[in-house]
Amino acid sequence: MSYSHWVIDALFVGTVALIWFMLGYQSILFFLGHVYYRRTRKASRDVPEIPDSELPGLSVLVPCHNEGRVIAHTIRALQGLEYPADKIEFLLINDGSTDNTAEVIRSFSADHRVRLLDVPPPLSARGKASALNFALPYTRHPVLAVYDADNLPEPGALRVLAAHLVHHPELAAAVGMYRAWNRRRAFLTRLVNIEGIGFQWIVQAGRWMLMRLTMLPGTNYVIRKAIIERVGGWDERALTEDSELTVRLYEAGYYVQLVPTSVSWEQEPETLLNWFRQRRRWVRGFNYVMQKHAFKLLRARPRRIAFEILSSHLLYYFFFLAIVVSDILFVLCLAHLININVPGPYSLVWILAYATFVLQLVIALSCEKGEDTAANILLTIVMYFTYCQLWIPVVAAAFYDDFIIRREMKWAKTERVQVGTA
């Protein structure tokens, strides 16, 4: 005999309402993101290319900690960037590497643009933010670009971003797209690829259209050096230095814009353990941002941006709590252990929610050439029941680390695999 109680009914209604609220908001972002896709594709054809004489000088920062497997490929990709040679430098920051990273970088010394910066032992291996701050005084140009050591930017990626800053002097930073070059090497990377495309074409593009908000992604972005210095550099306690810096930029009244025509290819985790460690670090980083900035954001202007930054970080807990409760109720109902006495076509409501989730991702995939394949559509259909559920233990582990045992925050880099041919 199944058990029924008003508390069960209230939990059910609450989770359905919260999930549909998030889906509704996501649908707005999805629609605006698609508008942005069409608009930027048209603009890329209509805006004349900026001449070399008007491009700003660029210092490209690449933090490296035990990157011997990938750094040669990254340097070659940087050397292939379509940018005036006298206006660009590449600062490879050897941050306490114990492998052959420094030797690989030195092998490119014939190119005067490639500079090796060795972080001294007392300051090394303290995380990406620390390495970037160390390199800041050594930069020669007024605009900085940041790439992770596994990135392979397309030839025109940096020129597009720099030109955007020239055309829009009100911007503090311009952000490009990131894509997974190893997306077809494992089942996991195929799902991560779909997640990344969906996030960028729905959340990033939609937020910019709705409220002029874009989060720094940690790679493939340019930012004005004077502004970085004005806000105090990168926060060395932050595990997600990109999102923390974004909050400070908006608190100071600056804007960051997504420029989808700039693309860099990166390596995604190919094993579940590496993926779990990376995602847990991300969530812990978001926890830190919330603890540091929550009360400031309550007073920040404009209100809509402060609300979005707060809600996007709280999403990890409120939305995923709703998912967990709904999953439990669903299983218990299937097992006939409980009975929900709430009138309504809730089976249809759940099917519509799931269909909305799939449809949004499939259309987001269509924004990237060759991604709306039958295989990717099939993966999107099963994604909610597989990949999305993996986030629940990630969020739970991060919550346990930060709010239960208060584990010390330490940077842990994502392990790379051998690139081979890109």
Strand and helix map with partners:
Blueprint: H1 6-46, E1 58-64, H2 71-79, E2 88-94, H3 101-106, E3 114-118, H4 128-135, E4 143-146, E5 152-153, H5 157-167, E6 171-180, H6 187-211, E7 221-224, H7 225-231, H8 241-251, E8 255-266, H9 272-298, H10 303-334, H11 346-365, H12 374-383, H13 387-404
Parallel strand pairs: 1-2, 1-4, 2-3, 6-8
Antiparallel strand pairs: 4-7, 5-8, 6-7
List keywords for this structure.
alpha/beta, Spore Coat Polysaccharide Biosynthesis Protein SpsA, Chain A
State the strand order across the main sheet: 3-2-1-4-7-6-8-5
Computed Rg: 22 Å
Order of helices and strands: HEHEHEHEEHEHEHHEHHHHH
What characteristic shape results from the CA principal axes? Answer: globular
What is the end-to-end distance?
A: 59 Å
CATH C-level name of the largest domain:
Alpha Beta
The CATH superfamily of the largest domain is known as Spore Coat Polysaccharide Biosynthesis Protein SpsA, Chain A
Which fold name is given in CATH as the topology of the largest domain? Spore Coat Polysaccharide Biosynthesis Protein SpsA, Chain A
